[in-house]
């Protein structure tokens, strides 16, 4: 676009130029394009509902569902931002989040989706979402993004939890709040680490993130308690194998195990240095999925893992057990791993 | 009549100074023979390109920054199925270096695991780490190889530089048009044989196989196969000679037309060499066609002279009278061929223009060799008494055959013939609708499926995600466009939607690479594989990519989207191009234009469109030339129609045959239809010109046709059958292209002959209703 600025319309011009100066005009949500290859595009999360329906989300607003793990349908989705996580509370109600702080909602088991939030101006992605019932949900994301809903996503409120910073940062922010409210607002939007993943056990929430970030909430995220870091790299997933027996995974093949509710952690050695993206548990077996096709299995409660390469060496972001198989979501889309016949 | 006076003068001059004429021809032939021996096979990439096509404007415009489309892929495969061993890496490095130094290779564009531009980035706790995939301190031991394997995975080059199953590694190179060290054009065929000697022969072992594909290699293989073409020419010539001997019953009369036709070929080749042309491997069949057309006219000449000798004339008078009788019909037939071929010059593809010149030159010299030299030579022949007596007896059997055959010139039989012809024409028209533009098969259609080249193509397509079949959509936009989220997003959307088009295997662009880099900046987390909306992050992501990647120019105002295709079949290309044009309208605007196209498949798409656009005009021009020359010489619309209609039916049937043989219309097959007209027009003109005087004198049609058959029919029938037998041996050729052409030409020789002796008189029966 070119603007011819005459003196008379100078002010108009300034207004017109302003969004350009920011680098983009305020974008409107665009519906995802239906694509033959949606099930082979980059997928980032997958869930299986109680009625055996699979729902997976991924890049370009792709949401696909299947009732047999073989034939996939692409749902109509009102955004084409990359989606990063999906959560279903029952057979019908589910939410997916992603870039541009997008939140979409389905009330029909993932076949159709409505837009609940689209905020490209934040320039931050949401990275995970959980619900404890059809009304109360929590979405987290980059730079400490945290949104809460009490009405099934009709409205989402942003929350900042100062208690999720270390003490120095808390002091610094409190100081700023009085002295320089503008800078305070700016810092608030950038000072938090990325919140990568939530694990919910009833009202108990475990949250891991960037640079060893780890916090616990016992009231579904109303109040948080920062935990001492046991690793300085980023953590991408955490799971409770039993009530006091937790596993956390992260960058470059790092695995940590606690047997005392997080008081002390021991590092588990893995033969691979690929970043681990997700923990999947099936009965007593623990699986890990990671970049470079990493697929690791532990039959001894996470004390030791044996690794192999799946998905042609491409990143495996997550997986769900389905019948006798494992359905993986990867850079190449859906991949099926036969659990009975380890490669 | 002035034409008669001219012919008289020419005749007088020629036969009065026979010795001088012969001396001139001998000198000319010697000189041109000398020149002809210097002719070389000549193949170039750019002459196969329709440079005036809009896609090629885009191609030429960006050739400097982004390289051409003349790619060479060298894939090295380890027999064990795993490349990670010391021996393989040593071989790969040496092959890479060898290829780098072959003259004509664009050194900047040589890419393999060993090129310094092949890098990886990885995420570590405190940020980024990266380096060349093969580190400077690389030692090919177990640890070193394991590290390279890891780097290969991190670099995301599996499927491009390393096969999907790690059984092969790829070296990618581009061939320049001009060698910068010598400033001379790169000789494609020479280059191909260098590849064979210095790459394949030197580095292929029991453990490591080498697979080379690309235009230059394909042309090289075709040229290699074309050497075998000469053997088939020799066989065809031998068969023709034996047949002519049976036909004429005289060794001398056999030698002369064959020799004159060969002299025509020598003159053609010599003249080409004189004007600085070579022979393109795809035009290698043209000299044989010249020979064939020469034989056709030569046989008419010996037939006519022989008949006159039989009737008691001496050789000189007989030759002189044959000359006078045949100069006009022969000349008209050859001139219309010449003009018809010359019209191919209007098609703006270099190689077709070359063919136009090669073929028209060849046909034009037949006028000299077979209409002038041949009768002059024959005037020296001493016919034995025995020959004269035998010839004078005639052949009552043949006359009986001609009598039966002449029945087609009566209305009841003619009606049946015309109904059958009409039905055939309708069927052929319907079938010819299926004629596809471009290559119908994967690999090189000029070569057999089991040829090394095509097997190599299949292997590479099978094991790698890339082939030489890629098309570049050039995104022409504003300077620093790679810092604009909106533009980068559109590039990414374009690429993704194109990847979803059937036939597109994968795609790559600055946008898609920047997304991966952005994920890299975010600890390798693929959830961050997006184009950042804020300018700093976007710059950070795209600035990692260097211009040597071929994904952007210096100020990123031009960014290609590379789409790798499964093959270059005509339908794949047209589907991809149609979809790209649609998306270009949807996603492009005045500032950001998605321009078609570059890359080998882009060039092919343009060529297909140019061929498709040229198809109709070419037919119009060729037929226009034939019609005008027939009208001028016969001064009769009816006679012209009687000659042209059977030709057109045969053209249509030839196109139908091409669809049945699964031959697509390409730069190399497009002129075949025109050549077919050239072959066929001779027959019709000889027969009609023989009848025209009788028709004017109101001789009954059947009678007139019977006389024409006796005078020239045997020569027509004989020529058609002889040449058809000669070319039918081509089905055994090592070159698929020659096999296809052999079948097509056999068909054209035979069916054009049938058209001239069956359909033409049937038409005449209705065109001249008063000649009862």
Give descriptors for this structure.
heterodimer, A: about 350 residues, mainly beta, Methylamine Dehydrogenase, Chain H, 4-stranded antiparallel β-sheet, 3 helices, 27 strands, disordered N terminus, B: about 775 residues, alpha+beta, 3-stranded antiparallel β-sheet, elongated
**N→C terminal distance of chain A:** 56 Å
CATH superfamily of the domain at 230-343 in chain A: YVTN repeat-like/Quinoprotein amine dehydrogenase
Rg over CA atoms of chain B: 32 Å
Helix content of chain B: 55-70%
Annotation field: number of helices of chain A: 3
- What share of residues are in beta strands of chain B? 5-15%
| Range of strand content of chain A | 35-45%
Shape of chain B: elongated
Unreliable parts of chain B: none
Radius of gyration of chain A: 21 Å
Tally of individual helices of chain B? 24
Distance between the termini of chain B: 29 Å
What number is the mean pLDDT of chain B? 87
What is the typical, i.e. mean, pLDDT of chain A? Answer: 89
Reported for the largest beta sheet of chain B, the result is: 4 strands, antiparallel
**Major β-sheet of chain A, in short?**
4 strands, antiparallel
CATH class of the domain at 230-343 in chain A: Mainly Beta
CATH topology of the domain at 230-343 in chain A: Methylamine Dehydrogenase, Chain H
The share of residues in helices of chain A is: under 10%
Number of strands of chain A: 27
* Order of SSEs of chain A: HEEEEEEEEEEEEHHEEEEEEEEEEEEEEE
